[in-house]
Structure to design on (546 residues):
């Protein structure tokens, strides 16, 4: 598969994937562009891999996490008070909101690595071992990130919404 | 279950992805920006450390000199390239630009054309010319800020397959088009097919423009003859390097800025490097080989430089020059060479994957011919 063929066939999926990993469509746009510039220059090697798309997706995750590291000094983490102001505080209010909207906002509050892990686990449906290979860490680390992310989401999401999660 | 909620939220978030066409449209500017901001390879730094500074010949400045004309040292004012015995110019496939092709007959009040960028790298869209109308630019980096950009692609193999059709169907002067509104990001665009192999895209960025106005501008687009030429020509590049893009910008014809980018022919042209290069069979060595093999250089001439201050003092073709170096992780592999051309003009060479000798020779043999820039600011 040539680089052009890859772009023609998989760009849409790649941009959507990056949007889920970064949780920011505009950052995803920048990251995909940067990754593709680099991927094009080494496409000969990438295309010989068993799964070029897998390789490029790994580049996207790594670019996102390294971008986060570079921006870390400029980032101001949201405090619990700020989050409380952004997130609905009482179950009466939350109950009236769409559960997906609530989850959308909650996922945005996860640390970048936890967000990347749940993107790989639930959006990409990858096994823990595959996620560990992409992130370059041990499986136990992936499980820890996954467990903490789920716990954080579970705790932040009121039970009323969790119980309705199966409904369309 | 909470997993189902997560999946539903992720699917919804995926639906918020920007259109593919916008990612493609930004791919080339991203490549250009990357040249300055990121290190593609770390090998250039090591190569530089070992590079010797050689005696330099003169600039090749045939025809009109840099504007305004600057007094050149006697040895640096040859009438033509043929008068230069020091280093015989090596033929580089000239980048003569691309046909202008099309121009809008109407643009919103306050906008004028301040930037053109053409690139000839082969991709799904083929060669592309981008013409940008802005409310103004300085004499430095023209990117960023409010812009209305017309992408002219005249060699698209399969326009129907290449176009993003996720937007709203619109009529653009009798041609099928697709309009993508802004999604809270002040970016909107319209794509339309205007010929068998011609696709036009009009994109607004950092601008909340009404759909009617964007379509009015798109519908006013008409054919235009002429070529987007470059005031700057590179007469020599190291073996395997090819010019791929040119850029001209500025507030007026007198205050122009230009940049030419060249890349080292990528390894993708090699069928199977692993067969001929035993080192490539080692994954680690192969990875390093791929990194070292990348190379990109941008030569910019303008009134200012975005190179770091300071650096080793040099003389290039009788002109004062310096070689700044960055020590931060992202920039330590980048090669910089800044040459004072006189008359308020500076040449800045930024690259990876080449030596100081290469950079010096590129600078020695470039040509500057600032003709045909009357379109700037109009």
């Amino acid at each position: 598969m040539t680089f052009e063929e890859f772009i023609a066939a998989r760009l849409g999926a790649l941009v959507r994937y990056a949007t889920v990993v970064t949780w920011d469509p505009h950052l995803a746009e920048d990251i995909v562009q940067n990754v593709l510039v680099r991927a094009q220059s080494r496409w000969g090697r990438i295309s010989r891999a068993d799964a070029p798309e897998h390789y490029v997706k790994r580049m996207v995750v790594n670019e996102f996490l390294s971008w986060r590291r570079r921006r870390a000094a400029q980032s101001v983490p949201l405090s619990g008070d700020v989050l409380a102001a952004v997130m609905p505080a009482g179950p009466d209010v939350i109950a009236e909101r769409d559960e997906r909207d609530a989850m959308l906002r909650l996922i945005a509050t996860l640390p970048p690595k936890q967000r990347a892990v749940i993107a790989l686990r639930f959006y990409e449906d990858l096994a823990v071992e595959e996620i560990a290979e992409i992130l370059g860490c041990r499986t136990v680390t992936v499980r820890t990130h996954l467990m903490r992310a789920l716990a954080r989401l579970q705790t932040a999401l009121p039970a009323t919404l969790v119980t309705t999660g199966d409904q369309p | 279950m909470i997993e189902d909620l997560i999946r539903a939220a992720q699917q919804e978030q995926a639906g918020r992805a920007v259109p593919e066409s916008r990612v493609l449209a930004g791919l080339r500017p991203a490549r250009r920006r990357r040249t300055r901001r990121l290190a593609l390879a770390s090998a250039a730094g090591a190569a530089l450390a070992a590079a010797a500074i050689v005696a330099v010949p003169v600039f090749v400045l045939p025809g009109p000199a840099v504007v305004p004309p600057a007094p050149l040292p006697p040895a640096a004012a040859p009438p033509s390239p043929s008068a230069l015995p020091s280093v015989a110019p090596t033929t580089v496939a000239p980048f003569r630009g691309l046909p202008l092709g099309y121009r809008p007959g109407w643009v919103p009040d306050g906008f004028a054309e301040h930037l053109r960028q053409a690139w000839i790298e082969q991709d799904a869209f083929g060669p592309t010319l981008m013409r940008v109308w802005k409310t103004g630019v300085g004499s430095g980096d023209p990117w960023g800020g409010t812009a209305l950009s017309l992408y002219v692609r005249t060699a698209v193999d399969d326009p129907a397959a290449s176009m993003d059709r996720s937007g709203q169907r619109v009529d653009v002067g009798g041609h099928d088009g697709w309009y993508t509104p802004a999604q809270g990001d002040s970016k909107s665009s319209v794509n339309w097919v205007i010929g068998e192999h011609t696709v036009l895209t009009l994109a607004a960025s950092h601008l909340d423009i009404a759909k009617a106005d964007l379509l009015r501008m798109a519908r006013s687009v008409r054919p235009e003859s002429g070529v987007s030429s470059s005031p700057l020509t590179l007469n020599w590049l190291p073996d395997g390097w090819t010019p791929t893009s040119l850029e001209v910008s500025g507030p007026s014809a007198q205050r122009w800025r230009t940049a030419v980018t060249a890349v080292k022919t990528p390894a993708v042209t090699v069928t199977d490097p692993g067969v001929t290069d035993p080192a490539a069979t080692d994954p680690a060595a192969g990875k390093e080989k791929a990194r070292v093999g990348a190379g990109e250089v941008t030569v910019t001439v303008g009134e200012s430089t975005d190179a770091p201050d300071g650096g080793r003092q040099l003389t290039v073709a009788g002109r004062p020059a310096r070689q700044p170096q960055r020590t931060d992780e992202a920039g330590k592999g980048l090669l910089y060479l800044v040459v004072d051309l006189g008359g308020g003009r500076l040449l800045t060479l930024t690259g990876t994957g080449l030596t100081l000798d290469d950079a010096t020779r590129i600078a020695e043999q470039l040509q500057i011919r600032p003709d045909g820039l009357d379109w700037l600011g109009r």
Observations:
- Chain A has one domain: 3-156.
